[in-house]
Amino acid sequence: MPKEFSRQLKEDIIFSTLNVTTKGVISASILTFVLLLIVSLGFAFITNNFGIISLLVVLPMSVTYLVYSYPKFMSQVLKIQTGDEAIKIVLYMVIYLKLHPNFEGAVNFAAAHSKGPLATDIKKAMWDIHAGKYKTVEEALSAYMAKWRVWNEDFVRSVTLLYNVLIEPSEIERENILKKSLNFLLTNTERRMKVYVEDISGPINVLYFLGMLLPVMGIIMFPLISMFLHSSVNPFYLGIGYILVLPLLLLFLVNRIILKRPSAFIIPDISKHPELPPTDKYPLKFFGKTFLIPIVPTAILVSLLVMIYGVVHFVDLYSNLSTASEGLKMELLKKEAEFSLENLAATFSVTFGVAILVYLYFYMKSAPRIGIRNEIKNIEGEFQLGLYSLGNFLSEGYPIEKAIQKSLDEYEKLGLTKSPTFNFFSLLYNKMKNLGTDFSNAVFGKNGIIRIFPSVLIEEIMRILSDASSKSSTLLGNVAKTIGSYLESLNVIEAKIRELLEDIRTSVRLESSFVIPLVCAMVGVLGIFFLNMLRGLSCQLQTIEKSLGVIFLQNAAIGVGSVLNDLVGNFTQVMPMTVLQIIVGIYTVEIISIFSLLLNGIENGFDRTSRDHIIAKNLLSGMLVYAAVSIVALIAFQLLIIKIITQSGGPVAC
Fold first, then answer.
1. Alpha carbon of 428 to those of 332, 390, 423, 458: distances in Å?
2. How many other C-beta atoms can be found within 10 angstroms of the C-beta atom of residue 506?
3. Residue 185 to residue 165: CA distance in whole angstroms
4. Is the pLDDT of residue 555 over 50?
């Protein structure tokens, strides 16, 4: 193996934190290729079909590439995740240093209350200090900075700035350093996001072409290809291309776009919420009781129940076509191309069975979590206002209980009583007043309010305020206002970044929820329309053949025969139009899900809760649009065909 490839693979393994070696990855790749090649050759000897052989040749190379490139993929994922984590770590360090001028304590505090590869490395560095490997925090962190610089160079620079806090004698200069370290990270995040927005416009246009324009042209050509080129192109492989190959290609491109996205927001951590169900269970409330239902079996069962009618229909169709004569096969295919309730029910049964499977899976995973996630996001987004208000009253010398009461009065005057922050401080005030407990116990005690508001960010802020509550009200007020200022900086940058992404988000959201299902429905119906038009033309040509035969050839042994009919193809070779509708329907489900994944990646990064929610939401609205447009278009085109054939003087059916 070339040294350059070996060096790059070694770096990818280090930065992916995978517990593998370079030789292990190479060995696994070779073993995967050999095993799949043996299996592929075995199947290739069984079949003489060129299409299947081509797929079998591509399969070993594709899977081998995935195995070999997995460390690189994971290193890119971690690079994105460290951006979200870096903002949180620097924020925690800045807040801690504002109250305690102890750099080691700030590092420990940030690492203890963060999750991710950066926090893991920081914990290792602190352990190395206790083990005697390094003498100072700066020395221990420096050992990891080469690695962190690859993940997030701005994080390294921000931490380096914080070193100067301890040697700066001026309080004003220390405050400037703290603000500068956080603002430096946030400003560069905004700058990188601007570059990202400019860079992804091209790849998104490619997605539109591959996901919409190419399928539009292909599906319209389906009937023509299956009639005129049936000996060269098997429609079965065109279906595989749409249902399997094209979606996988789009998914690969979407992942590439998402992986290039700079981290910008702190993803709400809902893991500590007391009402959070297991990830594979859905809480169903029935007669006042809550039952935990397994998500995957439930989604599969409901999907199969919906698909029963369609599956029976197509099994019966396949059985009849495989044994039918040419004449009977022609009649069966004509029947499948008609607009009827039977055909509509069969196609919608399978299509919506697949859609329900995907929808239920993502809906049942996200439904119990999205409300909790949004609640935490909302309170984190406006918490700085409450801290400012509380800090102002504390700075005036009010004790903390009185300051909270004053803040609540201010919220009431402004008409903000429905605010989650008002609810938070109201519960806190009632705990302290009615139970006679102190600030710390009211928040973190056995029945503390942090159980009701399980935000990791707010928990750490309240923990810092709790530590400062034993000191003077003035100091506590300054700390509260400082934290509020830092949170406001986060919110300002987040608002700017969302503004940068707004045009792209709006476009992708419209595509995934409306344009894609609309276009797919129209394209599927157009395929049926063209086939029926050709069928009508064939009927007219048959009439002309008969007329010419009678007039010119009388009862001669030979005549025009089926020469003119051959010009419009062989209808016995055409793909059943109900099958075409299913291919279009399943592709619609896949493409809506893929574009929804892209939307969430652009908007929220690696937030899985919002990802599941957006896919379920867009799939529901998109499939309703698909069903409505399909039904209306089928009726409209059917009436148009009847009108055209009737006006031409030919039979409606032949």
1. 73, 13, 9, 13
2. 11
3. 17
4. no
C-beta of residue 5 within 8 angstroms of C-beta of residue 25: no
Sequential DSSP letters for 557-585: S--STTHHHHTT--GGGSPPHHHHHHHHH
Give the Cα separation of 129 and 66 in Å (integer). Answer: 39
Which residue is listed with tokens 């439904």? 367
Average pLDDT over the chain reads 81
CA-to-CA distance for 438 and 280, rounded, in angstroms?
A: 40
Q: What's the rounded Cα separation, in Å, for the pair 579 and 350?
A: 10
**Amino acid at position 603, single letter:** E
In this predicted structure, the answer to whether residue 554 has a pLDDT above a threshold of 50 is no
Would you say residue 3 has pLDDT above 50?
yes
pLDDT at residue 201, as a whole number? 80
Question: Which pair of structure tokens corresponds to residue 366?
Answer: 């996200």
Domain spans of the chain, in order of start: 3-198, 200-376+493-647
Taking each continuous run of H as one helix and of E as one strand, the counts in the chain are 24, 2
Distance (Å, whole) CA 149 – CA 86: 12
Radius of gyration of the chain measured on its C-alpha atoms = 33
Spatial separation of the C-alpha atoms in residues 226 and 25, rounded to whole Å: 44
Quick check: 56 pLDDT over 50? yes
Please give the model's pTM, rounded to 2 decimal places.
0.80
Banded pLDDT at 561 (limits 50, 70, 90): very low
pLDDT of 402 strictly over 50? yes
CA distance 117 to 122: 9
Q: For 124-139, what is each residue's pLDDT tens digit?
A: 999 998 888 888 888 8
Segment 274-285 shows an average pLDDT of 86
**DSSP-derived secondary structure letter, 2:** -
Length of the chain as a residue count: 654
- Residue 463: helix, strand or coil by DSSP? helix
Long-range (24+ apart) CB contacts under 8 A made by 151-154 are 151/15, 151/78, 151/79, 151/82, 151/117, 151/118, 152/79, 152/82, 152/83, 152/86, 152/118, 152/263, 154/86, 154/184, 154/185, 154/188, 154/189
CB 402 within 8 A of CB 428: no
